[in-house]
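#onboarding

Welcome to the new folks! Below is a worked example of what a typical request in this channel looks like: someone posts a single protein sequence, and someone else replies with the predicted structure as tokens. Don't worry about understanding the tokens yet, we'll cover that in week two.

Example request:
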Amino acid sequence: MRRQTLGIAAVIAGAAAAAPSVWQTVTHITDETYRAPEARHGAGHVQYHMAREALVTAGAFGAVGSILVAGPELSPALWRAMACAVGGFVAAMWSGGPTTGLWAPNRQAFAIHVASTSALSLGVALLRPRR
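Example response:
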């Protein structure tokens, strides 16, 4: 039971650590400085992607939260679903590096990404069902 409690705490800590990054993404949706007039699909296309990212994040964390309250022991299928949701969120957080060469816009953002990734990954590892 202790391993499960630590896993849940780590997942919650990872989500909390990501909150400033998620909030910043949400505020970019209506920020006029995030418009790109030269974008082929319209000036607001970047903001559309910010909105999509915010909604996908809400879905991922909603799924993870639902799975965590599902019961004291995760089934292998539920654990895999949680691992996929966390993995998708974490991969998106780090996608800037390989696509643009910028892993995070500043040191604070980088620290948030590291803290969130570390805690979420630890939580998922601790919650893995025993065979």
